[in-house]
TrEMBL record:
The keyword Protease does not apply. One of its GO terms (biological process) is lipid catabolic process. The active site is at 51 (nucleophile), 192 (proton acceptor). Residues 7-205 form the PNPLA domain. Keywords: Hydrolase, Lipid degradation, Lipid metabolism. A motif (GXGXXG) lies at residues 11-16. A motif (GXSXG) lies at residues 49-53. A motif (DGA/G) lies at residues 192-194. This is Patatin-like phospholipase/acyl hydrolase. It comes from Chryseobacterium takakiae.
Length: 345
């Protein structure tokens, strides 16, 4: 039987450029060793994403007229490199009257919403080519809201992809919360899924366990409702956060001083915890299957850890951080490529 291939993409704002650089290398190797013009969406059975990872997942799974992957990951990289400055732009006046997003959201949502509308148009969640899981959090009902393209085909939980991407990107203090409406008329008030699952790998595992992949993908060599030993999980981060916080500065800090550190710590800590949990799960398997979990999370090198630093110099530093990771981990990445080829539907 073929393994179920799962791609999980962390949140991280403009740092999603690092994710795109790593995925571009994998895609280029697929084109060399399997098929010219190969696209990632045709090699993964399930894609999960939080925040910026949810946006990349949506790009990967966009359909062409034959219900195959429409876009190369290069399209995602271009979106960040070319439109990032527009999306994350903060005016000089806003920096003066609203430093650090203390009064209201740091960044206006108009540019983000315009770019999402221009890119995805009226594409519906159920039209994505493979099952996916994109995270957000419902602030009124106080529970996770998980967008699943497979479920959108069989129940009323269908949305425009542009609205799903807006919801998963609504990081507190950066973008305002958003109200979106399902295509059946139900309204949800949502914020960034990175608040509880910045690394959505464990959510992806749990959701994949419920999916009849052989039936959906029309491939009897795939396993319905796969267990952990039936999976290959590739989890990609947006750079290891190594910024430390001074005990003396935070010892008697008030609420305002804790705003940025608490969001940063929550997002990086839950990503690290999920990685630990998945490592433990795969370590219980036979030796051959233990090697089917990959966590790819580069050092940021000279890049800023900020999710909204869109200076040209920082974008170049993010690209270089991704390229450096590829150079240091080429054997591992090539191993992933070979597994994707052998497990392709």
């Amino acid at each position: 039987m073929k393994k179920t291939t799962i791609l999980s993409l962390d949140g991280g704002g403009i740092r999603g450029i690092i994710t795109c650089i790593i995925l571009r290398y994998i895609e280029e190797q697929l084109q060399i060793y399997d098929k010219p013009g190969a696209k990632l969406g045709d090699y993964f059975d399930f894609v999960a994403g939080s925040s910026t990872g949810g946006l990349i997942a949506s790009i990967i799974l966009c359909p062409n007229e034959h219900r195959k992957a429409k876009y190369s990951i290069q399209k995602g990289l271009e979106l960040y490199a070319e439109k990032g400055g527009d999306i994350f732009q903060v005016s000089f006046w806003e920096r003066l009257v609203n430093p650090f997003g203390l009064i209201n959201e740091k960044i206006s949502q108009e540019a983000l919403e315009k770019n999402l509308n221009d890119f995805f148009g009226n594409l519906e969640l159920k039209e994505l080519i493979k099952p996916c899981l994109i995270t957000s959090y419902d602030i009124e009902n106080r529970r996770a809201k998980l967008f699943n393209s497979w479920k959108a085909r069989i129940n009323t939980d269908n949305f425009y992809v542009k609205d799903v991407c807006r919801a998963t990107s609504a990081a507190p203090t950066y973008f305002s919360p958003v109200q979106i409406k399902s295509l059946y008329g139900q309204i949800f008030s949502l914020i960034d899924g990175g608040m509880f699952a910045n690394n959505p790998s464990l959510c992806a595992y749990a959701e994949a366990r419920k999916i009849p992949f052989a039936e959906i993908l029309k491939d009897q060599q795939k396993t319905d409702h796969p267990a952990v030993n039936d999976m290959i999980v590739i989890s990609i981060g947006t750079g290891i956060e190594s910024r430390s916080y001074s005990f003396r500065k935070l010892e008697k800090a008030g609420k305002i001083s804790w705003v940025n550190p608490i969001i940063d710590i929550l997002m990086s800590a839950n990503a690290e915890t999920v990685d630990y949990q998945l490592c433990q799960m795969f370590d219980t398997l036979r030796q051959q299957n233990q090697k089917n979990y990959y966590r790819l999370n580069p050092s940021l090198k000279n890049a800023s850890p900020a999710m909204d630093n869109v200076r040209r110099s920082n974008i170049e530093n993010l690209i270089q951080a991704g390229l450096c990771f590829i150079d240091d981990n080429r054997n591992t990445l090539n191993e992933i490529v070979q597994k994707l080829i052998s497990n392709k539907t």
